[in-house]
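In this section we turn from sequence analysis to structure. A common task in structural bioinformatics is to predict how a protein folds when a small molecule is present, because the ligand can shape the pocket around it. The inputs are simple: the amino acid sequence and a SMILES string for the ligand, here NAP. Study the lines below before reading on.
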Amino acid sequence: MSLLVHKKALVTGSSRGIGRAAAIAFAKSGADVAIHYRRQREQAESAAEEIRAMGREALVIQAELEDPAEVNRLFDEIGETWGGLDIFMANAAASAFKPVMELKPHHMERTYRLLVDNFVLSVQRAVPLMEGRGGRIITLSGHGTHFTLPRYGNIASAKAALESLTRYLAAELGSKHITVNAIAPGVIGTESEQFYMGDNLEAFDAACRSATPLGRVGEPEDVADVAVFLASGLARFVTGQTLVVDGGLTLTSGPFQQIFGI
Ligand SMILES: NC(=O)c1ccc[n+]([C@@H]2O[C@H](COP(=O)([O-])OP(=O)(O)OC[C@H]3O[C@@H](n4cnc5c(N)ncnc54)[C@H](OP(=O)(O)O)[C@@H]3O)[C@@H](O)[C@H]2O)c1
């Protein structure tokens, strides 16, 4: 596939999980990719190696995205190296998984700084790099934004803000031919799913398989391929939308499903 030939893409949090799969899918579609990571240098380097083996360029940039100075450094480096950017996928996320009633101010501050405040700063830095080339901004929401999940209120409320910002930015940036869309994954098998579910992982995955019309837990590549679509010319008239990628999980209703099997 050559949907993204000559494109320059930055994916935050692409050392592992969905971000890594998206970075590799962008490269398979012809893009050069900046792999960003926070702690996992080895994994980031191995993603970059995979991309270079396809004949594409890969940058590897470390940055703690809770820190605005580091956000600025990340975009400075992209600007100095490439002089422009076509695709910005804001994928990095982290949260304290706790009931809302147990959240401390610093839990919310950290998650909101990463997912909301510094996302806005990132877009403010990315857009000048997209000037005159159109552009694609892709955010990651999640089904916890519209449904309640245990211990998920901190990140889910930040993602709700992100979905709203996705719509506002789409309206503001349309005249620059920049589209802004969100992907809302359902349950995707990554390290963060393992961390969130802990000892319940196996039972949870089995329950998800039976409640999902497509009959399985999602893989990072399921989300990555949708990111390629949104990043490509195929999605040229799609903006401000949140695309649910969950195998149909959120279509089913627990009690009905248990009794009638649908
Ligand atoms: N997995 C799911 O079921 C699911 C469901 C709904 C939504 N999502 C969303 O999809 C996205 C990817 O999820 P995932 O499961 O692939 O995540 P993941 O495996 O937890 O990976 C998170 C990535 O974000 C980076 N990161 C975390 N905190 C950071 C910080 N403060 N500064 C810079 N980078 C930071 C990590 O870098 P290091 O590894 O280098 O530390 C890592 O690359 C997230 O936005 C998540 O909320 C996932």
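The chain has a mean pLDDT of 96. As an exercise, try to locate the residues that line the NAP site and compare them with your own expectations.
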